[in-house]
Specification:
heterodimer, A: 254 residues, mainly alpha, globular, B: 305 residues, alpha/beta, Rossmann fold, Alpha-Beta Plaits, 2 domains, 6-stranded mixed beta sheet, 4-stranded antiparallel beta sheet, 14 strands
């Protein structure tokens, strides 16, 4: 199959694994909305109003990050419970096309919530079209990073029940603890570096900066203090995880 | 040229309880355009062989070639030529049988027109028309399995791996699947089928191999396997005899609440008369593939012990 046909296969997988179930059970969208909105509501009630836009950006990123949890569970379900990954391995579909198709289907689930959060953000904190385009770029990189991580981790397990808590553990650690819903500067200065252990910190800082919220960690090294550093960090981690997902994942078991 | 050639194929699984030799120096050729059955007990190595040959699993050593392509070194060259019904696979819960077949064909690169035509053809041939627009969560297990088989057979791939394709189907469903498999072979596909239904292997396969503990014990035609049984007839008793009494007449197999005796033709009259006198029931027939299989694998187990 040519590259064009592989791309088409990915879109087809997105259609029947993402859009089709969503169309038939629209309530599934509610499950995606619920957690980030709860966090946002919580912030709205207890935090100073100035921090609310950070929470809204956090909602967008949380939704993008949790596509990874969906990917982890979906990929494991298709491989272990339905044995359907075997059907795709024994076919001309390349691992990357399958991975992209699955990731796009997770994006389809997340998209309505993301659009709503973006709408709220534009309402409470208007910013430029360029900022919006940059934010969309950050969200797409975050989605790609989360999905490749989810797919990679899913291949390491042989039991579905082991995977459920792992997904919650990984993606909650990436989206709730790090400065996703709040500015990194809220962390006491001596411990701010710890935030960079989470790849989501790069995404959150970059997102906050491109929409003009600021709030990024300032270090004594000027090169580490701008959006370029965040972008490079996020892109490098995404590339690393995408490589791991495509090369080390057990498309063919050993 | 053989469609599939395996040479010294070995697969070891290392676990906490030691190493399991799932495939042990397996040599096997499957001729092009043939329906070949793989028989064996649970855990004999059938599925491992299929997984290796279908590029799902790396072998520990040895070689497999599919249409001349090295399965281990060049899986990308092999994958467009194959399709697989996995063991105990289940379809997507939200999709209908028609959507499964059509979407899978489209993903594999078929045009809309060709996918539509092949979907209609296979849905009809497999008897799925009454369920074609029902989501699979509403379908029985047998119909779900038929959906999965339809999806794979519709590909008309040159090599089809069918790992227990009729598991859980009723006799009507099985026969419909058999017919579509036969049609695929007539169209030129080579089929490797594993099954625990020996009547299925007898009905479909031109050749078969019996595998046990990772070793091929037999390879040849089903009829030739039956002729390896040293007894001529099969008597099935419901009452009338105990297993101990029958043992002096030949080989006794306990089959649920019945006893099956494989014996010589000359003993039939005596045994049937005695069974009827004692109020038992007896049926007489030719030796089946099942008995040949049981004898062969039983012999293998005894030799191993």
């Amino acid at each position: 199959m040519s590259v064009r046909q592989q791309a088409y296969a990915a879109l087809r997988i997105c259609y029947f694994n993402g859009i089709m179930p969503l169309w038939r059970s629209p309530l599934l969208i509610g499950a995606v909305f619920l957690t980030p909105f709860s966090f946002l509501f919580f912030l709205y009630v207890i935090a100073p109003r100035a921090l609310f836009p950070f929470g809204v950006v956090g909602g967008v990123l949380f939704t993008a990050l949790f596509t990874g949890n969906g990917m982890l569970n979906d990929a494991a379900y298709l491989r272990l419970e339905r044995q359907l990954q075997q059907v795709f391995v024994a076919s001309p579909v390349r691992p990357l096309a399958f991975l992209i198709g699955m990731a796009l289907s997770e994006l389809a689930f997340a998209l309505p919530a993301m659009v709503l959060f973006l709408g709220i953000l534009l309402w409470v904190h208007p910013f430029s079209a360029l900022g919006l385009a940059a934010l969309v770029g950050v969200v797409l990189l975050t989605w790609l990073m989360a999905c490749t991580l989810g797919f990679f981790v899913s291949t390491l397990f042989q039991q579905l029940r082991e995977i459920w808590p792992i997904g919650t553990l990984i993606f909650s650690s990436l989206s709730v603890l790090p400065p996703v819903f709040y500015p990194a500067t809220a962390i006491p200065a001596p411990y701010q570096w710890v935030a960079f252990l989470a790849p989501s910190t790069f995404a959150a800082q970059l997102a906050d900066r491109v929409v003009g919220l600021g709030g990024g960690i300032t270090t004594s090294v000027p090169a580490f203090n701008g959006p370029l550093f965040d972008l490079l960090g996020l892109a490098a981690l995404t590339l690393l995880l995408a490589s791991a997902a495509t090369y080390f994942s057990r498309w063919r078991e050993s | 040229m053989a469609a599939l050639e395996a040479r010294a194929l070995t697969k070891l699984y290392h676990g906490r309880r030691g190493t399991v030799r799932a495939l042990d120096q397996v040599d096997l050729d499957i001729p092009k355009g043939e329906l070949f059955a793989f028989l064996g007990r649970n855990g004999a190595g059938k599925t491992t062989f299929i997984k290796v040959a279908a590029t799902l699993l790396l072998p520990t050593s040895g070689e497999v070639r599919l249409f001349g392509e090295d399965v281990v070194a060049h899986p990308e060259a092999v994958r467009p030529l194959i399709a697989l019904v996995p063991q105990e696979g289940r379809p997507f819960f939200h999709m209908t049988p028609r959507e499964h077949v059509y979407e899978y064909l489209r993903v594999r690169g078929a045009s809309a027109e060709s996918a539509g035509a092949r979907t209609s053809e296979v849905i009809t041939a497999m008897g799925l028309t009454p369920f074609e627009n029902e989501p699979s969560y509403r379908l029985s297990g047998g119909v779900q399995q038929r959906t999965l088989v339809a999806m794979i057979l519709a590909t008309e791939a040159p090599f089809l791996f069918l790992d227990e394709p009729t598991l859980g189907m009723d006799p009507f469903g099985r026969r419909q699947v058999w017919e579509v498999i036969r049609r695929a072979v007539r169209k030129g596909s080579t089929v490797l089928l594993t099954t625990h239904y020996l009547d299925e292997a007898e009905q479909l396969a031109q050749e078969l191999a019996v595998i046990d503990s990772g070793k091929v014990l037999y390879r040849g035609a089903p009829e030739a396997l039956k002729s390896t049984v040293k007894r001529e007839v099969r008597l099935q008793f419901s009452g009338g005899f105990t297993a101990k009494e029958l043992a002096e007449y030949g080989q006794v197999i306990q089959d649920r609440n019945r006893l099956v005796l494989l014996t010589m033709r000359s003993r039939v009259r005596e045994l049937t008369d005695r069974a009827l006198e004692r109020g038992g029931e007896v049926t007489v027939g030719p030796v089946t593939l099942e008995e040949a299989f049981l004898e062969l694998v039983g012999r293998g187990i005894e030799e191993e012990q």
